[in-house]
Amino acid sequence: MSGSHSQVARLLSLVPYLQQHDGVHIDQVAAAFEVTPRQIRQDLQVLYWCGLPELMPGDYIEVDLEAVDGHGSIHLSNADYFARPMRFTPDEAVALVLALRSLRELADPARFAVIDSLLDKLSAAAGDRAEAASRTQVRVSGGTEEVRAAVHQALGEGVRLDLTYDVASRAETTQRQVDPLRASVRDGYAYLDAWCWSAGGLRSFRMDRIVRAVPTDQPVERHQVTLPDPDAPWFADEADAPQVTLTLAPQAHWIAEYYPVEQQTAGVGDELVVTLRVIDQAWFRALLLRLGDGVRAVDPPLAAETADQRAAEALDQYAALGMGRDDPGPTGLG
Amino acid sequence: MAVDKSERLLNLTICLLSTKRYVSKDEIRSAVQGYRDQSDSAFERMFERDKEELRELGVPIETGSFEHFFDDEQGYRISPADFELPPIELTADEAATLGVAARAWRQASVASSTQNAMRKLRAAGVEPDDARLPRLEPVVTAREAGFEQWVDAMIDRRRVTFDYADKGTRTVEPWGITSAKGRWYVVGFDPDRQAPRMFRLSRVRTVTKVSRRAGEFTLPADVDIRELARALEPPASTAEATVALRVGRAAGLRRRGTAATAPADVRLPQGFEVVTVGYAGRDSMVGELAVYGPDVVVLDPPELRTALLRHLAGVGRRGTRSEQTR
After folding, report:
1. Is A224 exposed, middle or buried (0-12, 13-18, 19+ CB in 10 A)?
2. pLDDT tens column, B286-311
3. Residues of chain B positioned with their CB less than 8 A from the CB of A268
4. Could you tell me if A298 and A304 are in contact, meaning their C-beta atoms sit under 8 angstroms apart?
5. Size of interface A-B (CB pairs under 8 A)
6. Among all residues of chain B, which has the CA nearest to that of A54?
7. Looking at the predicted complex, does its ipTM rise above 0.90?
8. CATH for the A149-219 domain, from 3.30.390, 1.10.20, 1.10.1200, 2.30.30
9. S-S: B295 plus which of A38, A305, B92, B249, CB 3.0-4.6 Å?
10. Are residues B152 and B228 in the same domain?
């Protein structure tokens, strides 16, 4: 978008805004428009030369630049044709609607009615330009409404939560107490970011893996923590984690799309060779077990040891139960 | 220079907005600063570009003529009713909710669309208050390359041709855009297959062609994108397995399952309990079961167990295979 393009878009909102807020301070305008005061000053300079002196009765837009430079307050008049801002464009309607739908998937169920009425009002204001927005949706895996209601209650009241949580990579259910700090969406999943008393640190809990959340009457404590930017790529600060290289058969190529892969090259024939960082051993073990013979080689080979053991234990157990395989498997290569 | 151009575009907007009748090109040329000093051809080019740019910003410039233009010359105007955002009033709760949603987008071009929309709302007297709900971050991300291009094609109804993963060249009339679990999909009509299809944007290698004309296709009147996206998803459970789980383990399966009793002829090891759980594809179920290793025993159906045993044997064999290839 060129400089004038975005400036004109801004000016078309700035003029009605300034007429709505007569005498407003330039810093407040800059904050509302998310630009610098200097940019607003430049915008006013442009407006100073705008108007219609020739064709219609009337004059230039009146901006008191002395008052702006003197004490920062802005007075603008003689711009009745810009009494209202412009309608939303279709892409603006899409952006607003998707943001609100995402919020709806994260929010307290008690807030649904407010979000729905807001969506209705915005769609009504957009009129036919909301048509494309009605063809969009965003779904977040956000857990049950009971869990969300309890999490938001605890966040609102500032109380500790009793949490029953499934640790997926370890495949076990845990009990813990947490001080809730924030509910966020990351890559399509809702999370509770909280101080975990069992782990003694900041943890993110996927809402759809919270089995039960019960607010206690104990107030949360203050914690010296910085909440991660929800948009930061996973594992961004885990550059020290060990690297593992996997040779993948076609049926396992999908992991290159699903997980942050450091390197990716074509292997022999239909193979794909990817390198990734292993932050969590349990996660990596689960990955190897899931992929089976879709992983044709692991380097270093030792990284596959615990996965191989788990698979062997499982096979032994079936054999002990009389449910094992008599045939050790196809004799050809995987 | 950017400033001069902004001034001219704004003056053109004012000119067209403050007239009730259509104004001719000549009138515009004499009224708007910046056009007057141009040669005929320079003015023509400039005016065409300016009109296009304003339309891109969403300024609804109408073309038409009144009868007093005997020579049938076209005139231009902007109808205030089409231009202006209708009145909108929000409750304090709605304004707080809007404030939270306004910071959701992290994808540059969509974030700037949100910013423009929020400026319009502020100019309409809405005061979004994002301080009231500070503990909510409903982040929407789109990391897929070319995401904006797809949104634009969906909005303008342009047909798109693209290389799709290893499936070759495909064409879609994009009806809608949906996201699930952080991945974006386009839902639309595939003219080659003559049927609705859903494509995952991360699997689009390159977009090779976007039709130039907007409004290239129409949507069926009764199409519901949400319904359709759901219909095109892989089916939910179509089969049921009976499995034994080690107590306190395999939480994901237990949560999905229903408690059951062990068949009479099965002797379970100590500390296992039995559940039934639904699944759709056998291969993906086998992958999921394998993750739990010896914490899960598949009792039924036998074909599922056989497939799992083969899969687990594949895990064990991999080490050997990898050494052979070295």
Report:
1. exposed
2. 999 999 999 999 998 999 999 999 99
3. 325
4. yes
5. 402
6. B31
7. no
8. 2.30.30
9. B249
10. yes
